[in-house]
UniProtKB/TrEMBL annotation, chain A:
GO terms for molecular function: ABC-type polyamine transporter activity; ATP binding; ATP hydrolysis activity. It catalyses: ATP + H2O + polyamine-[polyamine-binding protein]Side 1 = ADP + phosphate + polyamineSide 2 + [polyamine-binding protein]Side 1. SUPFAM superfamilies: MOP-like, P-loop containing nucleoside triphosphate hydrolases. It comes from Octadecabacter ascidiaceicola. Belongs to the ABC transporter superfamily. Spermidine/putrescine importer (TC 3.A.1.11.1) family. This is Spermidine/putrescine import ATP-binding protein PotA. It comes from the Bacteria. GO terms for biological process: putrescine transport. The gene is potA_1. The keyword Ribosomal protein does not apply. GO terms for cellular component: ATP-binding cassette (ABC) transporter complex.
TrEMBL record, chain B:
Belongs to the binding-protein-dependent transport system permease family. CysTW subfamily. This is Inner membrane ABC transporter permease protein YdcV. One of its GO terms (cellular component) is plasma membrane. It is found in: Cell membrane. It comes from the Bacteria. The keyword Cytoplasm does not apply. The chain crosses the membrane at residues 12-31, 67-89, 101-124, 130-154, 174-194, 232-253. Its main location: membrane. The gene is ydcV. Keywords: Cell membrane, Membrane, Transmembrane, Transmembrane helix, Transport.
Length: 377, 271
């Protein structure tokens, strides 16, 4: 297989000439009085691994079921390759879905489960066998071809479901919480398998998940959904490092959020917060207008902790309240004079024979002027 | 193990005696030499031989089996359709009324069902015979089938059908190749239930049968009015035997299937 030039970043969403494979155009879906999807517009590009992430009830599953053809939009259009697929029934869409419960046919063997869709396409009989064998090889299920679904383990069932949904080489594969039923260790392995398979087949994947770690790991872009709307659609690193709202910042990972007022400063802006606290200096080329109400957001791992006054753009003093030791990292909860609690994370790169800090210690927290972001909403 | 107690032993004996003593009497007297049913005169199988010569009984038995087969098959098809539609249709106005109307014949007195069917057949001018009994049995057996199949469909994972649609099945193909094979055990037990209900129905068959179509229950009932003969005892014994063999083999088969499925699952977990 030709290796793509590693200098070229896969980012069709930044390329105005790129043609999206899926377009949601002002889609609204109502169930009676309840609005599940609210005037949503979204483009998904070929070969993307696109994750829909959100709390339960945010509409992510409804969005996916509309792609599969099991729900139709109340208003708006869904285009696949520029064609409106609203009136197309699920069995005529070049889209396949991997169900959360796997939905394997219990009365059919693994082989027949994978061949099920192929037998209903106009593929010649002799090619079906080859295709099934190829799928079995891709998912390492060769040994289990003759077994029934109840005779294999959960992880193997998950792979059968994947093989079955990929067998017809769909233009778009939908994965509904595909790893939800697996234990953590198997889930991590399977995430990488999924990414490999997505890369090998070049299929566009849309995954629905409530597990943010999973979305961040596998996806090329993540859409954060809340109450039927998109809060932010961006690459995992942008979502994490440059959230566009306090909701997204708080939803993804751990964050310190400080409420304050913007003030003008040279090269950036200041955020005034708390009584008797030094303002937070931020270097940015897009400062908020002075006096605006805002939140300063900074990830705990970007906050350093030290016993003596460090040289940094922002320094605050506090007392350690709690220490959470997680093996690879430790999280310190530090109470700052004004009553605000800050989280600071350190990597335990040395073995922990003696803690540098302990409870009730007076410490200094510091961060650079580019470590955090200011959010106006 | 619980200790043996006289109370338990006595209640067990009385319970079983209550259930099976009458049938046991019937079986014993079917081997009676004497024509008098209640006087024992030695062991003989001659009544079984005579039964085989009795054309009227054999004809009635054949009619009964034909009626039971066709009515239970029709009832299974209609009952499964009704169950499928009621479970899949979701919520709509008047759903409760519809499902109530499917189950109403379950509690309707048989005399009324039989009478209304008789009046209906007369009104549309259909000659009474095997066809009318089949139709009558279909109507009342259908709701039993529908109850059995509904209870299976309620626990059926809807995503299996969606997966079939997703993989290119038309809705009918999805039902035929995925739903039906999975709910088949319930459909078969619905069929068996309908078959046995039809076999022993007397009331509705009496209303809807014609001169050429006497079923076995009607035949036995009318014969008994002229006095019980050992022939009827012999016939009943054969029916008891058939039912017993059927029930025992059905339960053995389902138990061995259950054991096999459990062993398979254990095998899967060990991997």
């Amino acid at each position: 297989m030709a290796q793509p030039n590693t200098n070229v970043v896969f980012a069709p969403w930044d390329d105005p000439a790129a043609k999206p494979i899926i377009q949601f155009k002002n889609v609204t879906k109502r169930f009676g009085e309840f609005t599940a999807i609210d005037n949503l517009t979204l483009d998904i590009y070929p070969q993307e691994f696109f994750a829909l992430l959100g709390p339960s009830g945010c509409g992510k599953t409804t969005l996916m079921r509309m792609l599969g053809g099991f729900e139709s939009p109340t208003e708006g259009q869904i285009l696949l390759d520029g064609v409106d697929i609203g009136p197309v029934p699920p069995n005529e869409r070049p889209v396949n879905m991997m169900f959360q419960s796997y939905a394997l046919f219990p009365h059919l063997s693994v082989w027949d489960n994978i061949a099920f869709g192929l037998k209903r396409s106009n593929m010649p009989k002799d090619q079906i066998g080859d295709r099934v064998e190829k799928m079995l090889k891709l998912t390492q299920l060769g040994k289990f071809a003759k077994r029934k679904p109840h005779q294999i383990s959960g992880g193997q069932r998950q792979r059968v479901a994947l093989a079955r949904s990929l067998a017809k080489a769909p233009k778009l594969l939908l994965l509904d919480e595909p790893l939800g039923a697996l234990d953590k260790k198997l889930r991590n392995e399977t995430q990488f398998e999924l990414m490999d398979i997505q890369e090998t087949t070049g299929t566009t994947f849309v995954i629905v998940t409530h597990d943010q770690e999973e979305a961040m790991t596998v996806a090329s872009r993540v859409a954060i959904m809340v109450d039927g709307s998109l809060a932010q659609v961006s690459t995992p690193d942008q979502i994490y490092e440059a959230p566009n709202s306090t909701y997204v910042a708080d939803f993804i990972g751990d964050v310190n959020l400080i409420e304050g007022k913007a003030a003008a400063a040279k090269g950036g802006m200041d955020v005034h917060w708390g009584d008797h606290q030094p303002p937070i200096h931020i270097t940015t080329d897009k400062p908020l207008p002075a006096g605006a109400h805002c939140h300063f957001a900074i990830r705990p791992e970007k906050v350093s902790i030290s016993a003596t006054t460090p040289k940094a753009a922002n320094v605050v003093k506090g007392t350690i309240l709690d220490i959470a030791y997680l093996g690879n990292i430790s999280t310190y909860h530090v109470e700052i004079a004004s009553g605000v609690i800050f989280k600071a994370q350190t990597t335990n790169s040395k073995r922990l024979s003696r803690r540098t800090f302990t409870w009730e210690d007076e410490v200094y927290l510091s961060w650079t002027d580019t470590a955090g972001v200011v959010l106006s909403e | 193990m619980r200790r043996f107690s006289w109370f338990n032993a006595t209640s067990l004996t009385f319970g079983f005696a209550f259930l099976y003593l009458p049938m046991l009497m019937l079986i014993i007297y079917s081997f009676n030499e004497s024509r008098l049913v209640t006087v024992w005169a030695g062991f003989s199988t001659k009544w079984y031989g005579e039964l085989m010569q009795n054309e009227a009984f054999l004809d009635a038995a054949w009619v009964t089996i034909k009626v039971a087969f066709w009515s239970s098959t029709l009832a299974t098809i209609l009952g499964t359709m009704a169950a499928y539609i009621m479970v899949r249709a979701g919520r709509f106005r008047g759903r409760g009324l519809f499902s109530g109307m499917i189950y109403a014949p379950l509690v309707m007195p048989e005399v009324i069902t039989g009478l209304s069917l008789l009046l209906f057949f007369i009104a549309v001018d259909v000659d009474r015979g095997i066809l009318t009994i089949v139709l009558a049995h279909t109507t009342f057996a259908m709701c039993y089938v529908s109850v059995v199949v509904t209870s299976r469909l309620v626990s059926f994972d809807n995503s299996l059908e969606e997966a079939a649609l997703d993989l290119g099945c038309t809705p009918f193909d999805a039902f035929r190749s995925v739903t039906l094979p999975i709910i088949m055990p319930a459909v078969i037990s619905g069929w068996l239930l309908a078959f046995t209900l039809s076999l022993d129905d007397l009331v509705i068959a009496t209303f809807t049968s014609g001169p050429s179509s006497t079923t076995l229950p009607i035949k036995i009932f009318s014969a008994v009015r002229l006095g019980v003969t050992p022939e009827i005892n012999a016939l009943s014994t054969i029916m008891i035997l058939l039912v017993t063999v059927g029930v025992i083999s059905a339960s053995l088969i389902s138990r061995s299937l259950a054991i096999k499925a459990k062993a398979d699952e254990r095998k899967a977990e060990q991997q």
